[in-house]
Amino acid sequence: RYDTFEEIMDYCSLSANPVGRLILQIFDKKSSDLYKLSDSICTGLQIANFLQDVSRDYKLGRIYIPMEDLKLFNVSEDDIANSNSTHSFKKLMKFESKRCWGMFNEGVPLINHLEGTQKIPISIFIHSGRKVLNKIKKIDFAILESRPTISKFEKISLVAKSSINYFLKFQLAGIEKYND
Asked: Most C-beta atoms within 10 A of its C-beta, which of 1, 48, 144, 178?
């Protein structure tokens, strides 16, 4: 259990963020400013995964939603245990999704600091995270009853779209508003 959002951020700094930093080192991009942008993307991906897997994680004895947020939205562990996406739970998931979306937007400028095809995987990471959040929204945040996933075809489409956009010089990933 994590009491605060800050504790979740600390967790991500040790789990997800090092992966992005390694990728930047492979790209020979070693800068604290770029690491911060990468951290936003990687933390966003980790949190999107947490949102996608609330039921799975609970069955393993884990809750990656801050306890302060559960309290703020009047959501109990029993709601999660009983796979009950109450109105309050859905409002909580909408809040967490919107916050996560903002992380992707914070990380988007990283693409402009990369060269050539280095831009493609970072764009794919952002589009993938947003795709998960859109799927969560599409099921009206009722993720306790149904786990949103990205199909193989959708994964291939994300790779194709990012690659085609790169070669045609379109924008790979941009800042997008989270539509309520």
From this structure: 48
Q: How far apart are CA 59 and CA 54, in angstroms?
A: 9
Q: Would you say 74 and 88 are in contact if contact means Cβ atoms under 8 Å apart?
A: yes
Number of C-beta neighbours around residue 21 at 10 A: 16
pLDDT on residue 134: 96
DSSP for residue 110: G
Separation of alpha carbons 47 and 50, rounded Å: 5
Q: Which residues of the chain have pLDDT under 50?
A: none
- CA dist 76 and 65 (Å) reads 11
Q: What is the DSSP letter of 31?
A: -
On average, the pLDDT of the chain sits at: 94
Residue 24 has a CB neighbour count (10 Å cut-off) of 21
Euclidean distance between CA atoms 121 and 100, whole angstroms:
19
Q: What SS3 state is found at 64?
A: coil
User: Which sign does the torsion angle of CA 93, 95, 99, 104 carry?
Assistant: positive
* pTM of the predicted model as reported, rounded to 2 decimal places: 0.91
Q: What is the dihedral of CA 108, 147, 73, 68, to 10 degrees?
A: -70
* Residues 4 and 68: beta-carbon distance below 8 Å: yes
